[in-house]
Design a protein that fits this description.
Number of helices: 14
Helix content: over 70%
Strand content: under 5%
Structural class: mainly alpha
Distance between the termini: 41 Å
Shape: globular
């Protein structure tokens, strides 16, 4: 019993330190965001006496965070919808339809996961510039789909592989077409994986800075994370307003992690044993 308790403390202490290191930046940002500029200059680390919510209102309206939030919501929603549609269809085809080259296509998607975006960012920017997609919502959406579609296809293929082939064969015998099998069998059975992958894709797209910064030049088309980076120069002498913008950008991601952490863990471990 003593050894078991000791091993529990050995594991708990570093985990508590890691949790504290993760939570403290958010607490510090919230503390700064609700201070006045004078309180921040006098002592940035001191606990606030009374919250000043007007800083968040200033960041939301005057600094343009409301516009950036809408831009991110639009782009992320459409991108994730396309990723789930294309990824689930490709995953079904690669896992349950027998056709020549399916293994090569799957291995190609797997290999694409190891290619850093920095390697393809210059060719991507040139192609988008030549096709007139720079500084457009469709351009950013297509860039997100191209970047994270291999990841989505890999996880959906791994999940669909665990579904017995007999279910697909029985559906085909009952007269279902390939589309019917996908719509009536694979979509319902793939809902847990679709939810997990959808959450991960949402986090990837929402937190992105590099792709959005590369493809969006106009201030009106900035996403939320790019807008936060622009606040640092615009409000360099008003750190509480800048911290309010950071807090606005962090809250949606924090809520997703708090309420959907189990689905996120399932998505991360999906396909770890089969593929």
């Amino acid at each position: 019993m003593r050894g078991r308790r000791l091993s529990g403390w050995v594991a708990a202490v570093p985990m508590a330190a890691l949790a504290l290191a993760t939570v403290y930046p958010l607490v510090f940002t919230a503390n700064v965001a609700l201070k006045t500029r004078r309180e921040y200059v006098l002592d940035r680390f001191a606990p606030l006496n009374s919250p000043h919510w007007e800083n968040i209102g200033t960041a939301w309206s005057e600094a343009g965070m409301a516009r950036y939030f809408v831009n991110s919501l639009l782009v992320v929603t459409v991108s994730v919808a396309l990723l789930l549609l294309l990824g689930s269809m490709a995953g079904f085809a690669l896992s349950r339809l027998r056709f020549r080259g399916s293994r090569v296509i799957f291995l190609g998607c797997l290999a694409a996961l190891f290619v850093p975006f920095q390697v393809i960012m210059v060719p991507l920017a040139r192609v988008m510039a030549d096709t007139g997609l720079i500084d457009t919502y469709p351009g950013l959406i297509l860039a997100y789909v191209a970047q994270w579609l291999p990841f989505t296809v890999f996880l959906m293929t791994s999940h669909y592989t665990t579904i017995p082939m007999e279910i697909v064969d029985a559906a085909r015998i009952d007269g279902n077409t390939v589309y019917g099998v996908y719509r009536r069998i694979m979509i319902p059975l793939g809902r847990p994986a679709l939810l997990s992958v959808g959450i991960l894709d949402t986090l990837f797209c929402w937190n992105d800075v590099l792709i959005a910064l590369l493809t969006m030049n106009s201030a009106d088309h900035r996403t939320l994370m790019v807008g936060v980076t622009s606040l640092r120069g615009q409000y360099s002498d008003d750190i509480p307003t800048f911290a309010s913008g950071v807090l606005i950008a962090a809250v949606p991601v924090l809520m997703i992690y708090l309420f959907l952490q189990r689905q996120i863990a399932d998505g991360v471990t999906a396909g770890s044993t089969k593929g």
